[in-house]
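Reviewers asked in the last cycle whether our approach scales beyond single polypeptides. To address this, we selected a multi-component target totalling 883 residues and predicted its structure end to end. The input consisted of the following lines:
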Amino acid sequence: MSTIRNWLPMKWPCGPLEMARRTKSGSMNSEGKQAIEACGQASALELLEGTPVNCLVVPWAEGRPEDSAQRQALQPLLEAGRRLGISFVGKVGSTADAASAAASARAAGFAAVMMEDPSGQSFDLPVIPQFSRDKVAWEKTSTIFSSSGNVWPGMNLETMHGDTAVAGPTGIPWVNSNAWFGLLAAELAPGKTLWLDFDPPATSTSARPAGYALAVADSRAYGSRWIISLDDKLLAALSKGNPQAKQVWKNICAMHAFFERHREWEAFQSLGALAVVSDFRGENAYLSGEVLNLLNRRGVQFRVIERARTLPALTPGLKAILWLDKQAPTADQHSQLLDFTQQGGLLIAPDYWGPAGVAPTKKDPSLAYTMYNVGKGQIEVAEAGFQDPYQVAVDTHLLLSRRNDLVRLYNPETANCHCSGDFTSPQKGKRLVQVLNYGSDPASSVTVWLNARAASARLWGPEAKDARTLQGLAASPGTEFNLPPLSVYCALEFEGINL
Amino acid sequence: MTTTACSRRKFVGSMGAAAGAWLARPAMFLARSAPAARVAVGACREYGPQVLETLRTMFEQIGGLQGLVRGKTVAVKLNLTGDATDRLGYLPAGLTHWVHPEVVGATVQLLGEAGARRIRLLESPMGTAEPLEEFMLQANWEPRDFASAAPRVEFENTNYLGYGRKYARFWVPGGGLRFKGYDLNHSYEDCDVFVSLAKLKEHVTAGVTLSMKNCFGITPCTIYGDDSPVDEPSLTPRGGRGPFHEMNRLPPKSAPPVVSVNAPKDPGYSVPRVVADLVAARPIHLAIIDGIHSMAGGEGPWCDHVRHVRPGLLVAGTNCVAADAVCVALMGFDPMADRGTPPFETCDSTLRLAEQLGVGTRDLSRIEVAGVPIAKARFNFRQA
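The resulting structure, written as structure tokens, was:
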């Protein structure tokens, strides 16, 4: 059995409980029935042999009459799974008696249970708390915690007309991603693992085969894990040995296996010339979350800083702090922020907290900000506060200036990237640029521009076990790397450079 | 080249009045007697230090820059079409659909050396009010290189009101072909000399895009854009200039009116007329066309069947129609061609329309070419 930190989870819809739940909700159809029946068979676990998937999340208790039938029905599956080294997590619904469900799960050999709001109760086996994404009690998270309410990564279904993507207000295709939430979790729950719970969309147009691999990559590139969830059609096809379905499954596993081979990347820290500060909770949760999401969508590289933590100091790699909350900094933080600006940093804030007597100026007519020169740096104050997260993200990028971009994509279309680095080494450590394609077609002629000199990079992808060397092309400034056609994911790894 | 003291408003006004009088003359006569000016053609195989020297020679060949720009505010409209991250394959925009930054830098330096008091680099970047410098940075251009190439170099995004308090109104002499006038960013009025710094390209809608078509982009999308409001300009631009193509909506009521609401809505009819209107209303004093590297088949990477080409040419002239006519000939086309004949298979000729407005002649027999002869420099875009 793998240790809890090494679990790679998959949703396994099976048993009378799943049947009852779907029947009650009216979502049962023939494919669903077929999938649930197939998953209930011990032989179905053969699917997992030789794959990195080592943990199944199964329905366990919902406080319904079917609970006891579920326990009986799952016994053969659990026994077969144990022989294969698979760990089981029992999903306990909010209407179930949590203590009783946990006790029965332990007795049945489950490795953990997953439930909403387990606070105030003690259990004899590990509990994976699950939160709605907009209401995570970060202080109650455990080694593994889960969120619901996530999005299926890829083109936004609501902006698709058939296979054609409709652009957002920026002209950039409207892309859904859970990236920002993974970055937020890394800051607010350091050292813990976030499991993202989301299912494929009901419409098959977006659930292209590569979409599953993207769902894995969009989670793992940003430090979280997706609880793999296959649609009924795919599950049913897999149970019949359909070759196309098997290829989709193979791609999902290949993507996971790739990230397993690069576990060291999980310890890398996000890089960015911008630090976004908020408590990310309560009344600040929506604005701060959306700003992170939209900054990411613009390709801005940033670091997330919880407001209660020590603020970062000005370094060659950090140029600006975006203070999102209406709440003013504490006296200590105020002093740190002033130091930051005195030394040349940029503070973007909803209010002016600088020294008295500094005359305001205006930088650009397109930006509704008032600028105060403080020491060698500036404080940019939003004239009407922070209202629209889209505008905050756009303005922040411009106030920071693209001169401070670490990385940029040319011909990005539906691609985006994430920049991180290994800071455990006292020397210049590894730097990583992960590129994800959220579109339905391979991205062609994408160029990665890096704001540093680099002769070459190691190009990694899930399609090959070894990296290939990609030569850099000197640009002025920086270096460019021309990517081969990008299906879903690739990573450029650098050594000995500073970003 | 000589100049007389004249305020910019008087100058623009007098140009309009002259063109208005011109239009009162018979059409055939207009074509034969529209203004002509010498055009310089320079061979320049690659970007690099040779760009500066080639342009210096060419500017001398057309009469020198000093008389034109000394002590003046010079506005330079760049051709930076599309998004800053668009590329044809892996090629930087300057090698295909944008004027190359070395041509921009060399032009700024030579304008500075000729005594320009202030040089303002202008463009209306696609769908945004962000500072022009930021748009350039996104393409990995360094605006500081331009700012240090001459004294007092400024930048402005002209896709919205910008630094102005109100839009500047330009009436088209003779009443206009598409609109009676155009409201533009103040930068196009607050200058003494207007330079169009363009790329040598074909254009899917207008046949070619050269110094005149470059001016399509002087129109702010707050007024002429896809999402412009009904009554007043929007604060920020969104989208492109679809209404100029399809005529599917009119600009806000605050802008000068359309000539005829019943005119054809065909983009091949509309776009050339808007361009001809614009260069008649806002005259170009110096046309510079970068054809060192370019693309054939269309104006940007978003067009089908486009390819990178290397004509190795620079063109400059003080009359935009004459300069564009020489460019059209250099590209392997007949500048006297009109709708139905390459490169104007599906559109009217902007050259002919501008000629009829009295802006300049497209008749090569009336245009003196300095530098490399057309026959020697010709680069056939359709066979490239």
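Chain B touches chain A through 25 residues (CB under 8 Å). We regard this as preliminary and will revisit it once experimental data from Aim 1 are available.
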